[in-house]
Amino acid sequence: MLGKRLTKVILPKAVRTLKALKVKPAFSYLEAHLVDQCNLNCKGCGHFAPVADIWFADPNGYARDMRQLQKLVSTIHMIRLLGGEPLLHPKIEHFLFSTRSYFPKAEIRIITNGILLNTMPDSFWEACKTYSIEIDFTVYPPLFQKEKFLVNLSIGKGVKIHNSRASSFFAWSNLKGNTDPNLAFKKCRSRDEYNNLREGKIYCCWVSSNVHSFNKRYGTHIPITGFVDIYASDLTGWILKDMLEIGSSTCRYCAAGWDCPPSFPWSTSKMQMSEWDASTYM
Fold it and tell me: How many domains does the chain fold into?
């Protein structure tokens, strides 16, 4: 009973007090897309990389976004830089510098499939060490045999690496668009936060920020909603957090609201629309 009371009474009261004192909130998690395209053609990629156009985030625009976020929040505990494949960005070191400059206490990680790790210049590894950047190495089947080599490479460069194998994907898309959006959002948020920064906007999940690629390829009209413009007038960090805790019409196209979203073995994409539809794997 005391635990429930702490959650329902004391914590909300503490939050109201912080708001009244105009104390900036902390963010627990943020993702930032550096590129849309990828060098590994994964079937049903949740970020739609196989059907994405070539796009590189602007380093100067990203630095402005980091500066603006610093005005809104006190810190961000975890920031992950991803894609697509982020190591494809020719100026990735600029993003490492900007992220660390504006959020000195954040845990910052690069999410990579590892293909390019042994081709990265010394300046990349030096930037990782200098700015305390860690690497999340998602090991897909084509890289299983190189996993140990690439892990040892990173360790030898003095950069901390977290490696985990992925031999299957979950199918998160419900192309019928008939999912209960509130239920989908609630279940999605119960698993984790997926706040996603892209060109001055923070989206409540990666689907909203990347589904434009899917719409363009297949002529669909999945809504691009559930985002907040971080440059909006009168926006505060508290308002930003509250707005990101509201589901959107995009959630109607998510299988997260299903009792058990299906999974499928990793394989290469054939660019068929059905690859992304959860009903294909039922």
Answer: 1
